[in-house]
Amino acid sequence: MLHIHEIPSLYLGVTRRVTVWLPPGSRRRVTAGLPVLYLNDGQNLFEPDRAFAGGTWRVAETAEWLVRRRRIPPLVIVGIDHGRERRGREYLPVADERNPGTERPLGREFAEFVTREVLPLIAREYRTARGASATAFGGSSYGAVAALNTVFVKPGVFGRLLLESPSLYVGGEYLLRKARRFTRWPSRIYLGVGTAETSRAEWNHETVVNVVKLEATLRRAGFGPKRLAVAIEPGATHSEGAWAGRFARALEFLYGRG
């Protein structure tokens, strides 16, 4: 079952919808002690009639299937809507030279919104588990950039991180440079990317290479196979369908017993 909340945000200056999925057998306010996964681009996670081109990540179906088969523990999943025409500005810490709609970025304000407005609402309304080990963040494309940047801005808040097709080229590889100096990483990180993300071969190559660069940085920081999973999928595109196809693997790695 999905529960909807509208959050009037001081940091973003707008009201933003969040959608909460509860695991099988759970009722609202009977979710004490459950971990929470926060995901960006909430419109594209659960409901086809709200999703870009009608395709979703199939979050509810996939998570329920895994929970019922005890491949992951019960968890709460929170989809945070993007800001539509403000999406690029809110998700990026620096402007994207390939996208003229990203001037005056609001990445830091978005990090404050998530950590100081969304997380407290969920903790208050659902009595979920507290602490970094029980709190995960993720997204795709610009949404993955926003999740990674929030980890940098608010170190120690999130213990698990899910990054799909991250736009790591922005700002002359700004986030890759930040990553090389960062030390307070989440305990587990999942990285996913396809080899056919765009219609341009050079951009496809760049996208994969940047994910490999981030992987190398994390390996140097001490991430072994139990802390880092990387999926480079041949032929996969930059689409909800591709991210939905890898979502089960991501959940099992982030929440499984491995």
In brief, what are we looking at here?
With 258 residues, the protein is an alpha/beta fold.
Q: Which characteristics define this entry?
A:
globular; 258 residues; 8-stranded mixed beta sheet
Describe the structure.
- With 258 residues, the protein is an alpha/beta fold.
- The protein has a single domain, classed as Alpha/Beta hydrolase fold, catalytic domain (Rossmann fold).
- The protein is built from seven helices and eight strands, in the order E-E-E-H-E-H-H-E-H-E-H-E-H-E-H.
- The chain has helices spanning 59-68, 87-91, 107-126, 142-153, 170-181, 201-220, 240-255, and strands at residues 2-8, 15-21, 36-39, 76-80, 135-140, 160-164, 188-194, 228-233.
- The chain has an eight-stranded mixed beta sheet with strand order 1-2-4-3-5-6-7-8, with helices on both faces.
- The longest helix has 20 residues, at 107-126.
- It starts with a strand and ends with a helix.
Q: Let me know the CATH homologous superfamily.
A: Alpha/Beta hydrolase fold, catalytic domain
Rg calc: 17 Å
In helices, the fraction of residues equals: 25-40%
Unreliable spans are none
The major beta sheet can be summarized as: 8 strands, mixed
User: What overall geometry do the principal axes of the alpha carbons give?
Assistant: globular
Q: What string gives the helices and strands in order?
A: EEEHEHHEHEHEHEH
**CATH architecture term:** 3-Layer(aba) Sandwich
Helical segment tally? 7
Q: What is the tally of beta strands?
A: 8
CATH class: Alpha Beta
CATH topology: Rossmann fold
Please state how the strands of the largest beta sheet are arranged side by side: 1-2-4-3-5-6-7-8
Q: Report how far apart the termini are.
A: 29 Å
Class derived from helix and strand content: alpha/beta
Overall average residue pLDDT: 96
Number of domains as seen in the coordinates: 1
